[in-house]
Amino acid sequence: MKVAVPKEIKNHEYRVALTPTGVRELTGRGHQVSVQAAAGEGAGFTDADYQAAGAHVEADVKALWQGAELILKVKEPQAEEVARLSSGQTLFTYLHLAAEEKLTLGLLESGATCIAYETVTDSRGGLPLLAPMSTVAGRMAVQAGAHSLEKAQGGAGVLLPGVPGVSPGKVTVIGGGVVGENAARMALGLGADVTILDKSIARLEVLDDRYQGRIKTVYSTADALDDAVRDSDMIVGAVLIPGAAAPKLITRKMLADMQPGSVLVDVAIDQGGCFETSKPTTHAEPTYIVDGIVHYCVANMPGAVARTSTLGLTNATLPFVIALADKGWQKALADDAHFLPGLNVHDGRVTYQAVADAFGLEYTDPVSLVG
Length: 371
Ligand SMILES: NC(=O)C1=CN([C@@H]2O[C@H](COP(=O)(O)OP(=O)(O)OC[C@H]3O[C@@H](n4cnc5c(N)ncnc54)[C@H](O)[C@@H]3O)[C@@H](O)[C@H]2O)C=CC1
Ligand SMILES: CC(=O)C(=O)O
Ligand SMILES: [Mg+2]
Fold this sequence. Notes:
Layout: E1 2-5, H1 20-28, E2 32-36, H2 47-52, E3 56-58, H3 61-66, E4 70-72, H4 79-84, E5 90-93, H5 101-110, E6 113-116, H6 131-148, E7 170-174, H7 178-189, E8 193-198, H8 201-211, E9 216-219, H9 222-231, E10 234-237, H10 252-255, E11 263-266, E12 287-290, E13 293-296, H11 306-334, E14 343-346, E15 349-350, H12 353-359, H13 367-370
Parallel strand pairs: 1-2, 1-4, 2-3, 4-5, 5-6, 7-8, 7-10, 8-9, 10-11, 11-13
Antiparallel strand pairs: 6-14, 12-13, 14-15
Helix pairs in contact: 6-7
The chain binds 1,4-dihydronicotinamide adenine dinucleotide (NAI), pyruvic acid (PYR) and magnesium ion.
Organism: Vreelandella rituensis
Family: Belongs to the AlaDH/PNT family.
EC number: 1.4.1.1
């Protein structure tokens, strides 16, 4: 199969979808891999590294896209990339469509087959292609939030660990999944006073057992959210309903109950965000202030630590990439019931229920397409 790896073009996105190690796995199976010139630079891989693994390095971006059957990316296609996609091509990348109507309509119009990393599942109820980046983003969330608490960033001037004689800062994490647990772990490591809210008692049980009371667990209700906004120096938004737009859990009105200079870090921004006042930001300008509250809402947080993130992401995606290249999308998805939910769009049809629901579009069951 002809596989293409474009250079990412989203603001401050330095990850790449395939490492030279991945290229070697594909070329060893007889596939042709084209990598855009400098695609791996931000993650520490040179064009020569890719060539040594058997890739063709392509400087002409138009030729790269046109010649591809399978396109591997990291972030959702930007407008100029959507315009390059065509019917018969398969795109494998993060999509987050429920938060992006224009992108959804663009992909439908392209006629391409679009498989999202974030909706692939596993036998333990997890999201194996989201988890590595959720781990990164959860760990970064506290770094970013701690920096945002500094006065020069508009923050309240709170040092999370406190000092002897001064209480530590309070961090509340809403959603105790992969992002949430990793954020809580970092906050705990810094010496903050940490609480996790979740709707899943089973998940709270796991966290309680794992952290033996060092992290408080609270069942997420409207009252618990009211308490969180009154008490917290930093709130991390880390909820997910797979494939769907995030629920808005903190409204603008609730910001009035927060201490001025408190910080909201909305990691769930890639699914639209879980705070009413969230809007996507970039690493170039990661924060903004609403009603005295600092908001950090970067939609591609892991892009800033591209070396670690690329290695973590591609370790997880490689087996699925190999399946797509070896078998084609139809057989690869038909053979793996956990890969199948990755299919979000095919030939003008929406094949993921939560995306169809988000925009009132007709849903096509992916089972009917893979035979
Ligand atoms: N901004 C960025 O750069 C990145 C963003 N993300 C995003 O972070 C979000 C979280 O991802 P994961 O932790 O992997 O998901 P996850 O599925 O591991 O965890 C989500 C948790 O939210 C809980 N939850 C759902 N609704 C809730 C509610 N109303 N109140 C409280 N808890 C609720 C669930 O029970 C679950 O424990 C996703 O939107 C993901 O796409 C992930 C990586 C990078
Ligand atoms: C999950 C995601 O959106 C990211 O890694 O950028
Ligand atoms: Mg996004």
